[in-house]
Amino acid sequence: MSSIARRLGVMGQVDADVLSWRDTIIAAGGSVSVAILSIASRFVSDEKASDAWALTDDYWPFWGENLIQATVSLKQRRTVTLVNAPAFTARRHFATDGTSRYLNTGFIPSTHKVAASTHNIRLAVYLRDNLSGNTYAAGAVSSSNRNLRVRPRNGSVAYLDANSSSGTYTLPAATSAGYTAGSRDAASGASSYGYKNGVAMVQTVAPTAFGSASLPVVPVFVGGYNNAGVFTAPRATSIGFMAVGATLSAAQELAQYNAVQAWATAVGANV
Amino acid sequence: MPVFIVLTADEATHVRGPALPPYALEPIERQGGVFILPAGVLDHPAYQMHAEFLAALPRVDSADPSFPAALDPSED
Question: How far from A56 is each of A38, A44, A134, A189, A264, CA to CA, in Å?
Fold first, then answer.
């Protein structure tokens, strides 16, 4: 079989959503290799098999093989703006500096939600480093407890805000590295959840106040959070992947973690 | 330690905005009414339209006592 025929054989198995993602990247001047098409297609297939795809509004594979690829979101195909030159390492991550460099996803939760809603929201980040501090990996905040943020590690706990005040969750190991998700599916502490690498964390402090007017009305920033338009609580971090959407079940959390980790492993970005 | 360009509010307004896609410049406000940008933008091809202007501005090492503090010091 010729090389072209082999490539067409692979292309025939590529998910239609992945082909749309590829086309957006190419139109922006980037490229997607056959290998990444296969990896991304497997990811989307796994997500669809668990029904997490329908519940997740967008995904950001920051571990792209080139800069343009890394700045186009997978599902809604939005282009990230790189503010003040965050460092990009192909097949690994974007690195922010904890002072001035960050990413603006352009994803406004209140406007761009599809599956998510005011009382059903989730934010997940895959970090490649371990840092403890009062700093945020990503988020967007508007008034009246419309806080969507991940503080992946401060000491032994993660602080997770799912359109609410902070809930705290005990990390299974004292590290920010890995896949951290915060979500809620109703306006109560008992309906607020934290997951690390697909496994539920023990809630130590429940959120007590909940955004009820809407989701945040400003874009989600990465490397800190967007506080009503102001870049706030910056974190020097290396982020490989992010997802936003509605709450996942325990089984879907594990399935998504496994799918994310498989993509990370395939490109060498796994931690 | 990282070095930053220090800008006034007017200078920040002058450079703020989109650069070569997908990049943008957004000076970060610090205490004292000043703004900062990482000095690395001077050599970055996405920001060449502002390179000459930015190169003429003062710079300060983040370890220098004169480095302006964050608006919320708990964020440093």
Answer: 21, 11, 27, 22, 18
Residues of A in CB contact (< 8 Å) with B are 28, 67-68, 71, 79-85, 97, 99-101, 104, 134-135, 230-234
Q: Which residues of B touch A134 (CB under 8 A)?
A: 74-75
Locate the chain B residue with the closest alpha carbon to A96: B38
Q: Which pair of tokens denotes residue A68?
A: 């343009």
Q: d(Cα A216, Cα A214) in Å, to the nearest integer? A: 6
Q: Is the separation of the CB atoms in A271 and A263 below 8 Å?
A: no
- The full 3-state SS of A44-70, as one line of letters, equals HHHHHHHCHHHHEEEEEECCCCCHHHH
CB within 8 Å: B41 and A81: no
User: How far is Cα A59 from Cα A69, in angstroms, rounded to an integer?
Assistant: 13
pLDDT digits (tens, 9 = 90+) for B4-29: 999 999 999 999 999 999 999 999 99
Among candidate residues A141, A143, A116, the one with its CA nearest the CA of residue A57:
A116
Q: How far is A101 from chain B (nearest CA, A)?
A: 8
Q: Residue A5 has what pLDDT?
A: 38
Q: Is B41 on the interface with A (CB under 8 A)?
A: yes
DSSP output for chain B:
--EEEEE-HHHHHHH-EE-STTEEE-PEEBTTS-EEEEGGGGG-GGGHHHHHHHHTS-EEETTSTTSPPBSSGGG-
Q: Chain B: nearest CA to A268, how far in angstroms?
A: 25
What ipTM was reported for this prediction? 0.96
A203 forms bridges with which residues in the sheet? Answer: A169
Interchain CB distance below 8 Å, A84 and B2: no
pLDDT in the model for residue A2: 42
Which of A84, A101, A234 is the closest to B75 by Cβ?
A234
> In what order do the strands lie in the sheet containing B35-38?
B28-29, B35-38, B3-7, B59-61
What are the phi and psi torsion angles at A192 (to 5°)?
-110, 140
